[in-house]
Each structure stands twice: as C-alpha cells, then as structure tokens.
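FAQ: What does the model actually see?

It sees only this:
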Amino acid sequence: MKEFRDGGAQLSAQQLDRYFARIGVSGPRPPTLATLRAVHRAHLLAIPYENLDIHLGLRTTLDPEAMFTKLVDERRGGWCFEMNGVLGRVLETLGFNVRYLSGAVGRAERGWRAQGNHLVLLVTLDRPWIADVGFGDGFLTPLPLEPGSYRQDFLQYHVTRDGPRWRVHNHRYGGADGFDFSLTPRQLDDFAIQCLELQTSSESSFVKSTVCERHTPSGFVMLRSATLREVTAGGATTHIVQSAQEFDRVLRERFDLAIPGVDTLWPRVWERHLQWTAEQATGAPSTGP
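And it is asked to produce this:
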C-alpha cells in the first residue's frame, strides 16, 4: 500500500467507495478541477463541522484511520484536522498533488500562538487551489491561490498576500473573519501540539462552546451552544434552542448527527448560553455563544 508523505496510507477501493457514498458522489473521478470542485462541495454539504467529542469527553486524534472511520463509517463530523485530513487523503488517493499547510485563525488576537490552529490544503492543477472543508462556514468550492475577490452564490471572499503569507478573508456572515497561512509543506503530525491544546485548554473556544456548522444548498446553518443561526441570500435568522430534547432534534434534523447521549451535554450548553448572554448585556469581551 502506498504511503503518502502527509496524510497517511492510500485509501483502499472499498474506503473510497464508502467515502463517495457518504458525500453522494458517483461516476468517474479523474484528478481534474471539475472533480476537485465537486468533491469539495459535496463533502461540505454532507459532513458537518463539529466539536462534540471534546464535550463528550472523547479525545480527537490525528490518526488517519481513526479520522476516516469517524467521519465516514460512523457518519460523524469533525473539525479542521479531521475534515481536511480526510479530504486530503481522498484527493491524494485519486492522484491529486496535495500539500498540507499550517494556517492561523485569530492571529490578530493570539499572535504567534495561533500558528498551526488550522489545517489548510493546497491542490496544484493548472494552478494552485486553496481547498478547505474544515473552516465551518467558509467557501464552498476551492479558491485560486491568487489575490482577488471571489463570489460564490451570494457570499463574497477575498484572497490577499503579504510577503510569504497568504490570507483568506471570510464572507461578512462568518463566525471568524478568515485565516492566514504560508506555503511551507507540513505533515499531519506537525499539528499535534495545537490539536491537543485546542481540545484541553480552558482558553480554547472549542472547550468553551459546542459548535456544529453545515453548508446547505441555500447557504449554511450554525449551532453554537444554544444559538441556531441560518444564513441564506435573504439574510441571517437566529433561534434559541430551549431544551435537551430540542438540542438533540436540531442535531439530527439540521446536521444529520445522531449521537447517543448527546442530550446529556445540555446543562453545560445552556450554562454557556446564559454566560454569553450576560457578557453581551454588560459589554464584556466574549468569544461567542
């Protein structure tokens, strides 16, 4: 079995079939721009971005096989290391030229500590393309690695460059304003320190709040703690989830997540919601609901 430099061993034909059944893509899959766009979009429409394992007391791993099993066979979602880790391995198996890059979300607030808190993929075809299914509410199809403005449906994105670093500016509804990255090749193991810190540090927003995000054909939907937010071309709407039963139902119906015992998280979810509400009322700094 072929070993890839970055994302683990080549997937078997059976694993590829299970992945494409998971995201609803069929037919030939040559390593072309059309395939890249189709797979990227289908992955985001089918597999949610979520951090529920952290709050269920389960350790998130960088092991390629564990990530594949979780997202594909167990029909769960994941965060950037898992989402882009699985996509990168799929693309490499299909014959794409994939580079794993170290990104930073929130560099303005966190400085050098933000480095490596986001995994980004660069896929080289006729030109380099930024691929990222692990940013939650980010772009639906890959962006060219070229400075400019790029519109996808009703959402506008920007790519800029500052010396050796590139930055993707998220759309105006984004939960985060974007991320920056360099083109230095990385391996999954290079993210081990950040992967551990983000799921254990009391300062981590992933530890503070549950989050689920999923793209839809008309926009995207986000559940952060008890706040359900949906964005379409008509704007953004917000609803506050009121009970453990509704929390479980929203996860099932809006994010296709059926997780035994997830309703036990509700007391902490509601506590975090009340804390955020109080912060908003007093004007205290907040990392979000």
